[in-house]
Each structure stands twice: as C-alpha cells, then as structure tokens.
C-alpha cells in the first residue's frame, strides 16, 4: 500500500495539528462566523482532491457540507461529524495543550479529534483511490439537536448511504447500539403579581413551579434501578428562571427547562402521558426537542476489524446520551458509533487520547479497505 501517511509517527503529527487547529475555532451555535471559518478550514483540507464535489446546505441558520465523489449520490460509506461545540462563557478557553499523551481543550473529544481523523482519512483514501465510494458530511447543530443538520439532510435533502461511521459515542472497542430517547421540555407558569408582604393577593408562579418540579423529581426517582449503565429514565432540571428582579414582589411568571432521557419500553407518548398525569395542564408544557429511543446496528465487518486492530473483543454498549445516529438509523442504515478514548466531555478540560486516535484511524482505514476496494 502506498499510503500518504507512511508511519504512525507522521500520522500522529498530522492528527494532533489538525485537532489543535480546530479547537482554536470557537465553533459554537451562537458564533456563525466561527462556524463558517471552521467549515472553510475543513473545505481547504479536502477540496484539492480530484473527482470530488462539495455541496453546501443551510437550514434554520445551520450550515452543513456534504462531500462526495463526482457522480456518486449515495456513497457506500459516509463519514459523519459535527463541527459545533458547546458554549463556554470565556472565549479564551478555546485553546489546547498536549499533556500525558492527550490533547486537552474544549471539544477535543466531542468531536474535533474525530473530525481531524475523518478529514485526514477522507483525504488520504481519496488520494489513493479516487474511485472509492466514500463520502464525508459535516454538520453544525448536533449539540442543539441535529434537526437542521443530519436531520434536514436525511429527511429533506435525501441524503442516504450504505453505512455510516459516526465517531461521536462509544469508545475504541465499545460500539454503541442503543441510545435513550430524549425530551427537552419547557414548563411555563403564569401567576399573579402582588406585594410580597401580602402574598395572599397573588399567585406565586415560581413557588408553584418549584412544587411541580418536586413532583416530577419524585416520579423519576421512583423509576431508578440498579442497572450498571443507568438504563432507566432520568430527568434533570437545567434552567429555572423568573424575570422578576424585585425582592418584595411575588413573581407572576416562571419557567423551567427539563432534559429527560428514557430507554424502551418508554416512548415519547408514554413519558408525556406520565407528565400529564403528574402536573395536568398547569404548568403549560412546551416541547423543544424530542426523539424516540434508537437502536443502531453496526456492520459486523466493522466489529471484526475493531477486534483485529485492538486485539480485544468488541463490546456492544447502551448509551444514555443521544446522537445524530438516530436520523440515519431511521433508514435501517448500519451505523458505526465508536471513537477514540475521550474524557471530561463538555468541560474546558475535555481531552482525547492521542494513541487511541491512531488506533481508531487504523480501524476505520482497514474497514474502508475491506468494504470499498
Ligand atoms: Zn458530539
């Protein structure tokens, strides 16, 4: 094989440099210019390839790029990644360092390290095999639900593939096959303002909401079981606010945002019914994002390649978080959801293990060799 990346050492340097360059770009949903800059960076890495076309999409303010070989509509294998990272208030935190064999910085693990691997893999593979039916898609809204990125591309733009590689869950030899369903809800209470010395004249929206949140808390606490992988419904109150800024005024409005995750046999309908029985129609309930639990089926060839390269058995795991995989899975596409070793996701100390990036790269490379050549 006449690889562009002859040695592991050379490849490691390329992957570390690409990852660190990507981390420098604060590509959060709230910074469209930086999202565009990140896409440009990726485009530049790839567009010099012959026989490749880059298509731009945009839906609801979220741009995506789809890179396919000329004359191929549905590639046999599609590499899928998202450029967006979650928001840190201090812009100066978007930097990285290399320490103890890790790249440490916001988005290193989720998923700029993964993007670096896919960019390089795509470039190298197409340089050597220009006819290969391999595509690459980069979206920018995974952290805010994925509906306008992969969701739009699959449901509206007709994007299809033979199999999808999504390095956004699992670990090196842990391949995700089940993902919990997801409900992002807003609970809204309208009350009645009053002087706080005479609370009987008002209806305290905030206190009422807190009571209801406690009912919901108790309900989900009862569903908890002892499963090692926390395979039961959970509910986290993530935002609680009232616009009231006056200490001696009973607030007339309050709202809370909930993040609910649930495995089968629970469904969106059953969870919403449970909530309805608990709180009736006050607070008012607004659905922000919803997704049913998802089953992902990886290509058996990918499992055997994972075992061959890591020397360890591949394990099929269940994940409490969701991913873009669910949009692809809706069309029975085999999904390969594993990735390098990562940690401290969504913190400023987020990291990715460099040696495992190399291993993951080799797993994907071997899989593409067997699958596409
Ligand atoms: Zn991610």
Spatial strand arrangement across the major sheet: 1-2-6-3-7-17
CATH homologous superfamily (4th level) name of the largest domain = Zn peptidases
Gap from first CA to last CA: 12 Å
Number of helices: 9
Indicate how many domains the architecture comprises: 2
Largest sheet composition: 6 strands, mixed
How do the helices and strands follow one another from N- to C-terminus? HHEEEEEHEHEEEEHEEEHEEHEHEEEH
Count of extended strands: 19
Low-confidence stretches at least 5 residues in length (pLDDT < 50)?
none
Rounded Rg: 23 Å
Strand content: 25-35%
What's the CATH topology name of the largest domain? Aminopeptidase
Ligand list: zinc ion
What would you say this structure looks like, in words?
- The chain has 373 residues and is an alpha+beta fold.
- The protein has 2 domains: 8-179 and 294-372, 3-Layer(aba) Sandwich (Aminopeptidase), CATH 3.40.630.10; 181-291, Alpha-Beta Plaits (2-Layer Sandwich).
- Helices cover 34% and strands 26% of the residues.
- It has helices at residues 8-23, 32-46, 108-128, 147-155, 205-223, 268-279, 300-310, 325-329, 354-372; strands at 52-59, 62-69, 77-82, 97-99, 102-104, 134-139, 163-165, 174-179, 181-190, 194-195, 234-241, 249-250, 253-262, 284-291, 294-295, 315-319, 335-336, 342-343, 351-353.
- It has a 6-stranded mixed sheet. Strands 4-5-19-18 form a 4-stranded antiparallel sheet.
- Helix 1 (8-23) packs across helix 3.
- The longest helix is centred in the first third of the chain and has 21 residues, at 108-128.
- It is elongated, with a radius of gyration of 23 Å.
- The two termini are 12 Å apart.
- It binds zinc ion.
- Zinc ion binds next to helix 3.
